[in-house]
Amino acid sequence: MDRTDYIYLNINSLSTLGKLRKQAYEKFNKLAKNQPIYRWNKDSWMQFESELDEKTLDDLDFESSTFISIDYDDKEINSKHPSSLCGLVNLGSTCFMNSVFQCLNNIPEFIIKILELNDEINAPIISEYKKLVKKMWSGKYNAINPSSLLDNIQDNLPHYSSYRQQDAQEFMNHFLHLIHAEFSMKTTVITELFYGQLQSTVKCLGCQQTEITNEPFTFLPLSMMNSNQKSVLYVKTDGEQRLVSIKVNSSIFFLKDLIDCFIKQHEPTLTSERIRAVQLVDNVITDLYETRQSLRNIREEELAFVEHPEKTDNEKYIKCQFVDHSTNELFRPSILLICPNQNCSYLHLSEQIDQLLGHLCSMTNAPASAFQLFWRDRQEKIFKLNVETNRNENLPYISAIRITMATKWVDIYRKHCIINHSTDNSMLAKLLTNFFREDYLDGDYHCLKCSKRTVAQHKSYLCLPLPHVLIIQLKRFIYDTNSNEKIDTYIRFPLYELDLNEYTVKDDNNNNKLENSSSTKYDLIAVANHTGSLLSGHYTTYAKNNEDKNWYLFDDQYVRKLNSDKDIVTKNAYILVYVQKNLIIKYNK
Ligand SMILES: [Zn+2]
């Protein structure tokens, strides 16, 4: 027998032989048929047939610590399971390391390159890692012991000698850098597969000078949306609407303060009187918030800031609604127009309406025939707005304007808004948008041209080509002076077609240089999970097997097939490993 794997079973002496068999086979992912169980008895194996299944271990004189053995058919296993499904023994709080090795072990391109390396290579970590990978892919073992590789890693990074729980993401980064360093070359399998470039632009708001720097990265650390970041929909008078992130600190308690932060960070020319905070549900304003209201009672996803245009005492506000021509539904939030208190005609509104139609056209390419205009009187009666006849005519008691758009164009407009706001389809997209959004270096930036500290606008982009393997860290661990905590927020992330196109550097015509759009798209290949708290926890890995395309759980020495793809996305996800769509290749033994 060339398979010898050990496991520990904790079993009550009153338990039956049948239960013991079931438990032992389950631990090895095998079916408990009616094979005998063997017990080590001084110098030989004693056989216990399944007829004894009802007997307790006490009845059968099993001692409190006993070696048992089970049989299973190797041929059956090999045909049922792809190779490379191999557990890793925990050497004492080393699940962080096992979890990382399992993530890497399921990146086919990387493993092929490692196995192709010359055995004579003078690099202790790479050679040990190659030995480990070879064993893991041999199909001979259910679980193996990675201690010789760990020994070599500890020689280079002594803090991994303590057998304490460590951060898996940090370890992955260290491990990839160790391998890269051992090659002592500029371009290695690590740079080829894992390295990307981030371009960061910093524009001084004093002199408008822009500074551009490029830096390599091996992973994207994404901050979790937490209390120091608020997302609010901002609806402008000219029709534009966008989701803005507002940085806040713990002293922000009232809506008024949030509006002040918003103005400072996004619209410094506005005054707080011109921002109205509203509750917006399905594009309908359902409540007007008082500025002294506590933020605690406001649902962030329903909060919108509506810009009010400036008006004189002789003018009033009227609402402009945007309605789907056939369904009569509002397809976006209303905005406010201004018109004279008395004797309002189309002429007074035409400029504002033209601006709104221009906005809708620019988003959808809809022709003029897609729109119709109406006005509403005080009794809620609706009349068609006629550009010619109402041009100079008084529209008595006008209370609202309504712009309708044909359904076909409404659908295009809605799609555009979803992409812009990235609200619903994926929370990961929201974190990415947040990572790549424009922010401000307030007093932290020293401008060489102004030769002083100034306020600067900062934004990052991904450079092309993107890395073949994209590692995303969901930053669940917060270490600061007041508290150490783990954020358990559930983040939805896509298994297929994560598209990074919108975060890439574009040329002046807003095109990126790659013609093949698939190269900005990624499929998920592995997830490192962390369960438990900041101080004590456990790491496991979900990974997709390249041979049978099934997802498996790797939990130290145990490997188990997942029942459903739905099990992959959990609030424990900590590291996401994505592989570029055109890269997944088959590994032939
Ligand atoms: Zn400057």
UniProtKB/TrEMBL annotation:
Record bears the keyword Phosphoprotein: no
Reactions mediated catalytically: Thiol-dependent hydrolysis of ester, thioester, amide, peptide and isopeptide bonds formed by the C-terminal Gly of ubiquitin (a 76-residue protein attached to proteins as an intracellular targeting signal)
Gene3D superfamilies: Cysteine proteinases (3.90.70.10)
GO BP annotations listed: protein deubiquitination; proteolysis
Broad EC category: hydrolase
Keyword vocabulary terms for this entry: Hydrolase, Protease, Thiol protease, Ubl conjugation pathway
Enzyme Commission designation: 3.4.19.12
Domain of life of the source: Eukaryota
Every USP domain range: 86-581
Gene Ontology MF: a single term: cysteine-type deubiquitinase activity
A Pfam family annotated for this UniProt entry: UCH
Presence of keyword Protease: yes
InterPro entries for the chain: Papain-like_cys_pep_sf (IPR038765), Peptidase_C19_UCH (IPR001394), Ub_carboxyl-term_hydrolase (IPR050185), USP (IPR028889), USP_CS (IPR018200)
Similarity comment: family membership: Belongs to the peptidase C19 family.
Protein name (Swiss-Prot/TrEMBL): Ubiquitin carboxyl-terminal hydrolase
Lineage summary: Eukaryota, Metazoa, Spiralia, Gnathifera, Rotifera
